[in-house]
Specification:
Layout: H1 5-15, H2 21-30, H3 34-51, H4 56-63, H5 75-100, E1 116-120, E2 124-128, E3 135-137, E4 142-144, E5 150-152, E6 163-168, E7 174-177, E8 183-186, E9 190-195, E10 204-215, E11 223-226, E12 230-234, E13 238-243, E14 249-256, E15 259-263, E16 273-276, E17 280-285, E18 291-295, H6 298-301, E19 309-315, H7 316-327, E20 330-333, E21 342-347, H8 352-360, E22 366-370, E23 373-377
Helix pairs in contact: 3-5, 4-5
């Protein structure tokens, strides 16, 4: 049996932000061995979490450290180095997900600030997408580009597909190009699951929790977005899907082309699917019976892609949930009078204080910030 006392010391120093550059580099080389990776996962699930009392800030701080460690000069060695650095970060991130961000229902909740790629190839592995420069993975079939977006190569459709999931935390957005060339822009607090290749499938299917804008590459093979209550089927077009777990509705807004939207749990078979055209929205209230269609301002629906947050005569509860996702904070409303009001507004570079002060000009209320929680009270 291997004696891991020395590596335990180095891992502990790394988590305490006391590791030298040589020790950080040594860790990256050390995890190239699969047996060492297995040991690291077990170590993190026992000793580390007892020591740090499940303190996520320790892990989150160190996830950014490896992106600035000393890098090899040769390009080939540099690429290999980044690959294993990403794996090391991913092991830390996956452990953080398991221990820190698992809700009472057993499902993962996106309360952390780690942007992560989950790879399910028989076992779930996580790669951090934070603070990484251009790196490749899986024999160069996945690229993290200089602009921070993820791109899948389109020339390796013969491989056996495996499922990947991108977790986008509150406060951040992300862009990915799938293996078929389709572009997906993901909003804060969202999760997208998809195959790393579409070969052998009769349809190109992905699953979404949260919100995403799709630019679907044209093909004779249908592209289907599955949300909890709605599914959207297209051949090639542009549309936005909003399907957050903590909202009372799901909706699909069409920008270009035409799509068919299906109610996954229809109570009336006559309205189980609807075809919509540009500038229309298909919406299903989770507590309602029908899948409805109405006209909308598409530019406002997809403004989030450009970092703009829009309120369209919306009640305070919807607005506060948008602000929670945008600024990665928790908001508690103790002023019930606000529930009766609706607000409209358009903000881009404003911070949370700017937005709330604008709302205060319409309705008097007070608010305070403690830690990561904002509380709204009577004026």
């Amino acid at each position: 049996m291997k004696n891991h006392s020395n590596i335990d010391v180095i891992i502990s120093k790394f988590l305490d932000d006391q590791a030298t550059e040589d020790e950080k580099t040594f860790l990256i080389e050390w995890i190239k061995d699969s047996e060492n990776r297995a040991y690291l996962e077990g170590y993190l699930k026992t000793e580390v979490w007892v020591k740090y009392s499940f303190n996520s800030s320790v892990i989150e701080k160190q996830l950014s450290v490896l992106s600035i460690v000393t890098k090899p000069k040769r390009k080939k060695a540099y690429s290999s180095f980044l690959k294993y650095a990403a794996i090391f970060i991913g092991i830390l991130a996956s452990t953080a997900f398991v221990y820190l961000f698992k809700g009472q229902s057993g499902n993962y909740v996106l309360e952390n600030s780690i942007l992560t790629l989950e790879i399910n190839d028989g076992a779930s592995r996580f790669l951090s997408l934070e603070n990484q420069e251009n790196f490749t993975y899986d024999n160069n079939s996945i690229f993290l580009k200089d602009n921070g977006s993820l791109q899948y190569g389109t020339g390796k459709e013969s491989r056996i597909p495996e499922y990947h999931t991108i977790h986008v935390p509150n406060g951040k957005t992300f862009q990915v190009q799938l293996a078929d060339g389709s572009q997906v822009y993901m909003n804060s607090g969202s999760k997208l699951t998809y195959p790393n290749a579409f070969n052998g499938f009769k349809s190109r299917q992905v699953s979404l929790v949260g919100e995403a804008y799709f630019k679907v590459a044209k093909s004779n093979v249908p592209f289907i977005v599955n949300a909890d209550g709605l599914s959207t089927k297209v051949l090639g077009t542009e549309f936005n899907v909003s399907a957050y777990k903590n909202e009372t509705f799901e909706e699909v807004t069409l920008v270009e082309g035409s799509v068919e939207v299906f109610d996954n749990n229809p109570k009336d078979t006559h309205t189980s699917s609807r075809i919509i055209v540009p500038n229309q929205r298909a919406i299903k209230e989770k507590a309602g019976n029908d899948l409805a269609v109405d006209e909308v301002d598409v530019k406002n629906r997809i403004a989030w892609i450009d970092g703009i947050i829009v309120f369209e005569k919306e009640n305070i509860n919807i607005i506060l949930r948008k602000l929670e996702r945008r600024f990665n904070i928790s908001i508690k409303n103790n002023y019930e009078k606000l529930d009766e009001l609706r607000y409209s507004g358009r903000f881009k570079d404003e911070n949370i204080d700017d937005i709330l002060k604008t709302m205060q000009a319409h309705t008097s209320f007070s608010y305070s910030m403690e830690g990561n929680t904002l509380t709204i009270d009577n004026p």
